[in-house]
Structure formats: structure tokens, C-alpha cells
Amino acid sequence: MKINNDFFMNLAINEAWKYQFLTYPNPAVGCVVVKGDSEILAIEAHKEAGMPHAEVNALKAAFLKYHPNDVLKTLNDSFKIHEYLIKNHKGFFNDCKVYVTLEPCNHIGKTPSCANLIKELKPNKVIIGHEDSNNDAKGGIETLKLADIDIELDCLKKEAYELLYPFLKWNSGTFIFYKMAQTLNGSVDGAISANQAKAYVHSLRDKIDLLLIGGNTVRTDKPTLDARYIAGRAPNVMIYSKNKIFDRKIPLFHIPNREVVISDDLFKLLDHKFIMVEGTYTLLDTLKEKLDYILLIVNPKIRKGSNALNDLDIDFEIVHENYIGEEKLVFLKRKS
Amino acid sequence: MKINNDFFMNLAINEAWKYQFLTYPNPAVGCVVVKGDSEILAIEAHKEAGMPHAEVNALKAAFLKYHPNDVLKTLNDSFKIHEYLIKNHKGFFNDCKVYVTLEPCNHIGKTPSCANLIKELKPNKVIIGHEDSNNDAKGGIETLKLADIDIELDCLKKEAYELLYPFLKWNSGTFIFYKMAQTLNGSVDGAISANQAKAYVHSLRDKIDLLLIGGNTVRTDKPTLDARYIAGRAPNVMIYSKNKIFDRKIPLFHIPNREVVISDDLFKLLDHKFIMVEGTYTLLDTLKEKLDYILLIVNPKIRKGSNALNDLDIDFEIVHENYIGEEKLVFLKRKS
Q: CMP/dCMP-type deaminase domain spans which residues (chains A, B) (predicted)?
């Protein structure tokens, strides 16, 4: 296997995917810091909006690899990490390469500018996966170039683009994914997922703008649709149903600070940026042209049961996969 | 992400899985060489029986990383690489760590002993995933210990065991896997796999001892069952059928140097070490207790069609996954 720029960028991309969706409204970004030719110092990612960017996490971890007991270890706030590194780096990064999946941000928002931090630390080279088209944040490449830092663009650009795609979509309109669980052979009957996968779904619910669910699922399953497994925020819900009459004792109607809309107007989806669809197989055919992803949770067992997707005809690309315990999480992007 | 022994061993394990089954009758083995704490010099694997072992490929690549134009580059034969490295290493490996998924071999077979090579190169440490229980090859750890080389055992032992499992099975009896292709939703109708996946299946046919196929599949599909996509060897075939009468014009009967047996006696399988089963869904229930793996090739599309596995009830563990082009290759081990 070749140990080259693609190899290191791939480590950054895989690390970032672990936090895909969970960084909303920010993009998922990964960063790797390599000293010399191939000494790996850090593989880090942006984990949640408001928390340090991938570059900050990676530069901090890289510095600590050589200075394990440095006071930097105790700093978690982005501004403080920036300030500390700029003051104390003493040229540590001058023989380092920084691999980052997305152009470093150039603006000061909830966290300070990564391009500025990198400029001050003066690494030997910055290798970038994909440029940032976001008007607020772009300009990082320009900043680094003006500081005479060597830059290489478009490293694993296609993979970096796929990592960025949900952000590009929710940033310019609406990103919709359908979450479903099935067995290896496609059965959706009965309880499929283990608790670890359920907790992951709750962490998604905690982030999304809207949860879309079918009326029949609500009537049959009487769900709560909250994020209790992670003590998170319950999302607003849209129930897709022509018939507006529901038993108001169903738990989902009794969550504080939640809006519930009952509607059969799918145009309402466009009022939201980040939408998860659950349990509405019958709606999938109608929705399929609007769907960006299916997030498929696969339990590795074979079981008799009905196959909810059998009447569809859609082509996908597997853009990433992770494990959740023994189960598989497959990010499928619809081919348009 | 922690950059530690597990991280490097994981790189070695993933590299080895790329050649799983293709190393038959040898085990799939991976090796990573790291200089100092975390400077990655090589990530290599054993690729085919008779070719250099993982350690030899990795030690060669590591040396070449620092000496890119050395004459070592031109050597491909194991004996010659051993001899050259022992003569010319000049202490290069003394500050290196060698991660190997399996205890280095201690015997001289088609290739010389890896334990002896490592002993001579004197790396700082050897980290081993799983011990070798093979009577012919074991003893490598002992050899290294006697040479005062620091050894750490059982690094990612469970993952190293899963990598080794097919070898353990065919070495002590029979390893049987069922190869099948399906869409995301489990449909098996029509042509599913792309050419790249077909070529991979042919490379498996080139290695196995026996291909088991159902009589109905033979009668309906009239297959050739050779390895023409890779210009490989066509495997011997057992057709599982009570009715012994077949149209002898079916191409599979006309391959030179191939044995074809028509039988409904599954005990005959035990005369072979490495068996692939193709296209006999009806046989799966009978066979399921004997099956070690399902090798599932998943095309990421949803299509209407019949679900061949729906009448089974089996639990699996996903032991590894690779991509073949846009398709997914899933190694599923039956839970017993």
C-alpha cells in the first residue's frame, strides 16, 4: 500500500465521517497532522457545532504528542487553544504537513479562523481535499497563499466532496435522508436494531430540524419520537397524513417544546434544512426524487419477513459505512 | 483518534483482508513497519502462496522508503530479499517496530523463515496479533525471544483471529463459503454484479479446491464455471443433484483438466479443504450448519425481485468488508 497524500487524506476523511450529521449546521471535517514525511501525529475531526474545528483538534493533539504534559492539555475552548498554540509553538509545525478535508475557514464565528491559526504556525505544507464555497467561511486558501504557505488542492477531491455534500445541500436548501433498519436479506419486520443503534438514531433526532413520519406508523406504533436515550432535544415532527384525526393520547403529542404538524403537503419540507424520515415505506415512492440519502442500519442476520423496499427502483452510491456495535451503518446517496 | 499499537495493527489487518482467500493454502497476513514512535514506513500483506510473506514485503518497502533507488527494489524473490536485507540493513531497523497479524513463521518452506530475518534485522519491538498454531510454522516467538527482541502479543487478537480463521479451518478440515450477489433490498433476480465483481469471483474460483453448485442452476443457467476473466484455473465441480442426468452439452462439462462429480452426498465435501458454493439457494438450509461464511456481494441499488434467503434463519458477524468498484463485498461469519 502506498503511504502518500491520499493515504493520509483518507484517514482524515474516515475520521470526519464518524461525526457526519452530528456537526449540523457545520460541515463534517477531518484533519491529519504528519511530521516529516510520514510520522503521524494526529487524526482528528470536528465533532459538534460550537466545538473546536478539525484543524484545531488535530494541531492540539499533534503538539501534545511531543509535549504530553503541556498545559495545552487542559484547554478545550477554541479561542484559548488558538492563542496558546500561536504563543508557544516555537516552530514545532515547520516540518509538518496538515491534511484537511475542507479549505480551512477564514472567518471568526463561534470559533476563530483556522486559516489564521495555520498561517501563524507555518507548517511545511497544507493539503486540502475540497474548497469551501460557503461565502461566510471561504478565503482560507487565499490567506495561506499570502502567507507563503505551500498548498496542494483537490487531494481525494471526490471523497472530500461526498463528505461535504450534506453540508452543501442543507446550506443551500434542504437535505433529506431516510433512516431505516433491516436484516441482511432486507426484512423490516419486528425489532431489528440493538440499543447502540437506537442511541445513535436518538443523537440524530437531537440534531435535525424536522422528523417526517407517516400517519399509519403513528397510528400503529404510537411512538414518542424523542431523544431520551441520549437525554437530547426532541425534534419537531411532521406527520404525513391526509386524515388529520389522531388519538391525541399518542405520546409524541405530549413532548414539551415540540411542534407537531399534520399535513400531506410535501412542499412544507422545503421550509426546513435538515430532515430525517422514519418509518413511512409507503411514502418512499412519492419521496424518492427528493431524497438525498438512505441511512441504512443493517443487522447481520437473515430473517423471514417483509421487504419494505421491494416496490422501489432506485440506484445508490455507497458513500461511507461505519459500524455501530455489531451492526452496520451504510450512507447511501441517491444517484440522480 | 488514538495513534497507538491498535491503530497500526488495524492497518496491517485491513491490508491483509484484501488478499483473504487468495493466499490459499497460506493464511492472509499483514505487516506494518513503523520507525520511532509513529513514522509509518510500510503497510504490506502476503498476496499469494509462494510469494514473499507479509513481513518480507513490509521490511523491503520500509527500507526502500529511506533508500528509494537501492538495488533491493529489483529483487522479488524471498530468498534474495532476505539475503540482501541481512547483509545491508546496517542497523536501519533498530529503531523500528514491526506489527504483524500472525506470529512470524519459523520454518523454511517455499520461502525462508521470517522469524530468522527479523532476528537478524533486530527491530526495537515486534507486535503480534495472533500466535501460530500450525505445527510446521510455529516457534517464531521463541526464536525472537531467544534473540532478545522485545515482543508484545495479542494486539487486536480477536480481529487477528478472524483474519486467520479461514486458514485455521482449511488447515484442520474444511472451510466452506457461500458466494452470492444481491441488491440492497435482498433481490437476487437478473444480472446483479458488475464485471469487476465477476473478475473477483473468477479469482476465487482459481484458488478453491471445489465449487459446489445445485443441479437446477446447472440445468437452467448452463454455466461454464471457469476462471476466464482472469485467465485462471477452472475449479473442480460438484453438482448437487439426486437426478444424475444432465445435458452433456452444458459448457461446464467441457473444460480440460476439470473433474465434475454429480452427487447428493454432502459428506463428499469433507474430502476437500476450501469450497465455494454458488447459486443453490434451495440447498442453503441443508448446508447452513456446515457453512463458515457467506461472501455477500451487494450492489447498491433497490430492485423488485425475489429474496433467496427469506426462508432461512441465521445470525452472522460481519468480520470484514471491502469494495469492488461500486459494489460491496461483505465477509459474514456464521455465528455458531
A: 3-152
